[in-house]
Nuclease (Thermobifida cellulosilytica TB100), 228 residues
Amino acid sequence: MRTYRSLMQPASVRRWLPKAAACLVAVLVLGLLTGSWRVGVTAGAAVLVGFVVYTSQRQSEVPQWRRPSSAQRRTEAQLRVMQRFGYRVLHARRIQDGNGQIDHFIVGRRGAFAIDSESWDKRLPLRNKLEQLYHGRFSKNERIDEALAEARNAERLISQELGREIKVRPALAIYGPSMPWDSHRLRGVDIIVGTKVRKWLRSGKDRLSEEEIEEIYQAAKKVLPPRY
C-alpha cells in the first residue's frame, strides 16, 4: 500500500505531476465551459479515477527491471481481486529442475492452479481440431504441452514437500483472438479466455480449508523460487 512518505519521493512526485496537471486542466476547462465549478471538480475526479485504474493494471509484483508481458499484467490484475477472497498468489515462478516458468501459481478454496498468460494475434481464429489447438494455421500444441509439464512438475515438487499428493490444475489464459468458449479442456490443460480468469478459478472442484491453502502456498513458495 502506498504511504504519504512514498508518494513524496522524487520519483513518485515526477510520475504524479502530469496526472495532477491533467486533473487541474479538466477542472478549469469543464468549469469554464459549463459555468459550474461542481461540474469541473467532478470531471477532475473522473480523470483521477481513470489514472488510478490504468496505473493499477500496469503495476506488477515482478521486479521492474524484468517487466512482465501485457497478458501477464492483465491476469495479475484479475488475481488481485481474488486475493481479497483468500486466494494466495505467486507470480513468475521457475521449476527448479527445468527451464519452464509458471506465470501465476494460485491456491484457494477451489484448489491449486498454474496459469500461463499469452497474448495472440486477435485477427487469427482459435479452433480445436481433433484435439489439436490451432491459431489460424499455426499449431499451439507445443505450448499446451509445456503448460502441462510445468504444472505436473509443480504438483510433484509440492507433493514431495508436504508428504501428500497435491493436484495442480494447469491453464493457458489467452488474450486476443475470440473463442467459441469461456474455457475448454484440451490435452489436459484448460484453454480459457483471458478476461474470464476469475470465473474459471471459481469452477474448481476441490474444497480446501484455510489451513490447507496456507500449507500449499508456503510449500509452493519454497519449491518454486522466483524466476527473477
